[in-house]
Design goal:
Distance between the termini: 33 Å
Low-confidence stretches: 156-163
Helix content: over 70%
CATH topology: A middle domain of Talin 1
CATH class: Mainly Alpha
Mean pLDDT: 80
Radius of gyration: 19 Å
Length: 316
Amino acid sequence: MMYVWFIVGVVLTLLGASWLVDGASGIAKRYNVSEFVIGVCIVGIGTSMPELTVSMLGSIRGSAGIAIGNVTGSNMFNTLLILGITALINPIQFTKANLRTDMHLNTLSSLVLLSFAYLPIAFRAGESLMISRLEGIIFLLLFIGYLILTFRTAGKTVEEEVSSKPKPLWLLILMVLGGIAALVFGGQLFVEKGCEIARALKVSETVIAITLMACGTSLPELVTCVVAAVKKRNQLALGNILGSNVSNILLILGCSSAIRPLAVDPVNLEGFVFLLITAVLLYLSAFLPKRNTLTWYKGIFFILLYAAYIYYSVIA
C-alpha cells in the first residue's frame, strides 16, 4: 500500500506544480511584477514548505542530522540536478539583476552558514560545532532583509503577451494556494512513504537525509522548474531555485536552530563546504562560454557533479 501512496504523492506534486506556475505567472503579468520575484517569494518559499516541515520535525525530535542534511542535500539537488535538467530543456538566461544581486545572495547565504558552523572553533573553544539559537535568530532576521531587498530591487516585467481573456484574480490566487497545498501534501506523502520504503530496505538515517529526504522534499522544485522550462518561464525557474536555496538556509535552518541548537557533524560540515563551492560554480557558469546563459552542456556538467557528490557522500 505504501507504494500506492508514494505514487499518489508524485501525482499531487505534478498537479500542484502546474497550478502554481500558471497562477504565479498570471499574478506577475496582472501586477507587472517580474516573474523572478514571483519565483522567489511565492514559488521558491512555497515549494520549500516540505523542507521546512521535515527539518523542523527533525529539530523538535533532536535529530540534527536530518534537519541539516535535508537542507544541504536539497540545495545541492536544487542547484546541480534541477538547474541542470532545466538547462537541458531550455537554456536559462541570466539577467543583470541575477548577476548583480541574486547570485551573490545565494553565495553569501552559503558562506554565512559555513561561518556560523565554524564559530565554536574561533570563539567557543572546546565546544562542538553547532548552529546556536542566536545564530538561528540571525538567520531569520537575514531572511526578512532578503525579502525586503528582493522587492526593492526587482524590476518590472517588460514582456507583454497577447493572450485570451485573462483569468480572474480570485482564480489565480486559488491556483497558487491550491498548487502550494498540493505540493506540500504531495511532497510530504512522497517523503513519508519513501522513508518507509527506505527503512524496509534497511538504509541508514544519514543516507535517507542526504538522498531520499533531500530529493523527496525537492521534488516540488524539480517539477515546478521542469514545467516552467517547458512553458519558457526560465526566470520563474531560476527564481524558484535561488529563492528556495536562500529560504532553505535562512528560513528553514533559522527556524530549526531557533527551536533547538543543531549540532554539526563532519558529514554536514563537508556538505556546507560543497554548498559554497556549488554556489560559486553557479555564479561562474554565467561567465564561461556562451556568456550569461546556462546552456545544455553546462547543465550536463552540473548533473555529473551531482552524481559525483552523491557518490562521495553515500558510497565513497
